[in-house]
């Protein structure tokens, strides 16, 4: 068990480490994918911005060289209006790009246009203008187009600036990438937090499983250890798989206790049977001699030399002793001498008829119920089964109140026949229940304590079983006999 627990803890640790590793790997992969996507967007935006700025610069030079309407001769407002149409025509081919021209001497933007943007404004912001001036100052006399990237919150601003020779101005463009620094916005952080949380929950679940496994295994181990010295101990109720294991262990312990009790009882019955058989054999011969002597005395009494009543009482006592001895012999070696397949209902009817006198004396009615099913048959010794039923009926009549009812149920169940004899008495006392089938145990003044012991022995020789259920509302003795010999 120790190796098993260590193995479970090792597996839990491995699973937890794997969960954290998977979460970390997922975070790394997501960050890498986001970084790659961001770089791709910036690269494409830079290409668009520089291309658009170069084209704007080219168009400006062509427009400025028109002789009949030189651009420089126009007022600033007219230049702005003229260049706005030019930049709008150029930038219409560049999705999401805005731009215009920056007059360096006056630090002023003219010809601003954003033809493909849903939201437009008249000019760039002051911060954007300062950035344009810095980029233009950095160009100097290089004559090359420059690009610059500016982070603004979660957005990227990608500028493209192209110098215009001999014009004292530059062409500029701007590509805005809203949320490019975090393409999925706040959701990305929630996803990452969810991944970490799921990893922690998984780790917590693994730890919880490990703790429950250890506690359950410890409880089962402790219970089994105690069962070795205390057969009456039962494992406490638990939930989950260990609960089913504990229930199975408890059922096994109960069956073991029941089997041991049955074995002890059978040992007692076997020993008692041998003793009773020997005693009965020794007593029967003297009883025969006594009976012969009494018969001789009876004949003398009939001649007037003695009183017949005195002898008849002695003979009745001898007959009673003989019946007791016969039952003792039957208990020691119950014989099934006439076992055949036969209907059970006639046996029940004859047993009820045999106790008719006792039931009338106590005004107890006997009701036989068969549930309306076809009459069952079984391979039994009819006389022995009748005697068992008579014993059960006499006990039920004795336990019933005056004017009460005894019910006899006869049922067919698969490969067996079930007979139930129920009374409505006060039930068997708690202290007497475990001794009901013990030989010589009785709660009746006139009983011998062998009726139920013999009955159970007869039923056992048939391969059946006899048990009882009792409470304050009455007692039911149930007899189950196999239909076929050797069946269950």
Q: Which short descriptors sum up this protein?
A:
single chain; 488 residues; alpha+beta; Helix Hairpins; Heat Shock Protein 90; 3 domains; 5-stranded antiparallel beta sheet; 5-stranded mixed beta sheet; 10 helices; 12 strands; disordered N terminus
List the helices and strands and how they pair.
Elements lengths: L1 H63 L11 H16 L5 E7 L4 E6 L12 H14 L6 E7 L2 E10 L4 E9 L8 H44 L10 H63 L5 H25 L6 E5 L1 H10 L1 H6 L3 E5 L7 E5 H18 L5 E9 L2 E7 L28 H11 L3 E7 L2 E9 L6
Parallel strand pairs: 7-9
Antiparallel strand pairs: 1-2, 1-5, 3-4, 4-5, 6-8, 9-10, 10-12, 11-12
Helix pairs in contact: 1-2, 1-4, 4-5, 5-6, 6-10, 7-9, 9-10
Explain what you see.
This protein has 488 residues and is α+β, with helices and mostly antiparallel strands. The protein folds into three domains: 2-186; 256-333, Orthogonal Bundle (Helix Hairpins), CATH 1.10.287.130; 334-482, Heat Shock Protein 90, CATH 3.30.565.10. Helix content is 55%, strand content 18%. It has ten helices and twelve strands. It has helices at residues 2-64, 76-91, 126-139, 186-229, 240-302, 308-332, 345-354, 356-361, 382-399, 451-461, and strands spanning 97-103, 108-113, 146-152, 155-164, 169-177, 339-343, 365-369, 377-381, 405-413, 416-422, 465-471, 474-482. Strands 2-1-5-4-3 form a five-stranded antiparallel β-sheet. Strand 3 (146-152) and strand 4 form a beta hairpin. The longest helix is centred in the N-terminal third of the chain and has 63 residues, at 2-64. It is rod-shaped, with a radius of gyration of 54 Å. It starts with a helix and ends in a 6-residue tail after the last strand.
């Amino acid at each position: 068990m120790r190796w098993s627990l260590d193995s479970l803890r090792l597996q839990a640790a491995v699973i937890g480490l794997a969960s954290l590793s998977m979460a970390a790997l997922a975070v790394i992969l997501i960050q890498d994918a986001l970084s790659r996507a961001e770089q791709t967007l910036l690269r494409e935006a830079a290409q668009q911005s520089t291309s658009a700025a170069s084209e704007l610069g080219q168009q400006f030079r062509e427009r400025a060289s028109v002789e009949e309407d030189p651009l420089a001769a126009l007022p600033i407002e007219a230049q702005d209006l003229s260049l706005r149409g030019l930049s709008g025509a150029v930038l219409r081919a560049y999705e999401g790009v805005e731009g215009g021209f920056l007059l360096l001497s006056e630090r002023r933007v003219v010809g601003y246009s954003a033809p493909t943007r849903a939201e437009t404004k008249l000019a760039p912001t002051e911060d954007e203008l300062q950035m344009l001036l810095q980029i233009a100052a950095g160009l100097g006399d290089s004559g090359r187009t420059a690009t610059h990237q500016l982070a603004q919150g979660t957005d990227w601003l990608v500028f493209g600036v192209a110098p215009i020779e001999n014009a004292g101005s530059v062409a500029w463009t701007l590509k805005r990438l809203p949320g490019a620094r975090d393409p999925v916005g706040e959701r990305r952080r929630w996803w990452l937090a969810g991944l970490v949380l799921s990893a922690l929950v998984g780790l917590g679940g693994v730890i919880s499983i490990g703790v429950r496994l250890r506690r359950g295994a410890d409880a089962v181990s402790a219970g089994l250890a105690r069962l070795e010295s205390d057969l009456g101990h039962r494992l406490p109720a638990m939930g989950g798989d260990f609960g089913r294991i504990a229930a199975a262990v408890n059922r096994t312990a109960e069956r073991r206790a029941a089997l041991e009790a049955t074995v002890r009882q059978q040992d007692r019955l076997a020993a008692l049977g041998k003793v009773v058989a020997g005693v009965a054999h020794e007593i029967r011969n003297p009883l025969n001699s006594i009976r012969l002597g009494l018969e001789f005395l009876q004949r003398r009494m009939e001649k007037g030399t003695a009183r017949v009543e005195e002898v008849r009482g002695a003979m009745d006592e001898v007959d009673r002793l003989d019946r007791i001895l016969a039952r003792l012999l039957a208990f020691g070696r119950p014989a099934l001498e006439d076992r055949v397949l036969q209907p059970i209902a006639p046996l029940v009817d004859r047993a009820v008829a045999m106790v008719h006198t006792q039931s009338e004396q106590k005004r107890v009615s006997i009701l036989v119920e068969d549930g309306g099913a076809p009459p069952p048959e079984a391979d039994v010794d009819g006389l022995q089964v009748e005697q068992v039923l008579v014993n059960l009926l006499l006990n039920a009549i004795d336990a019933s109140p005056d004017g009460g009812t005894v019910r006899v149920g006869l049922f067919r169940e698969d490969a067996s026949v079930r007979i139930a004899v129920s009374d409505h008495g006060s039930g068997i006392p708690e202290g007497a229940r475990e001794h009901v089938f013990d030989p010589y145990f009785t709660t009746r003044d006139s009983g011998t304590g062998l009726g139920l012991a013999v009955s159970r022995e007869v039923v056992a020789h048939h391969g059946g079983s006899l048990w009882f259920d009792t409470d304050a509302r009455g007692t039911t003795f149930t007899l189950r006999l196999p239909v076929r010999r050797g069946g269950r």
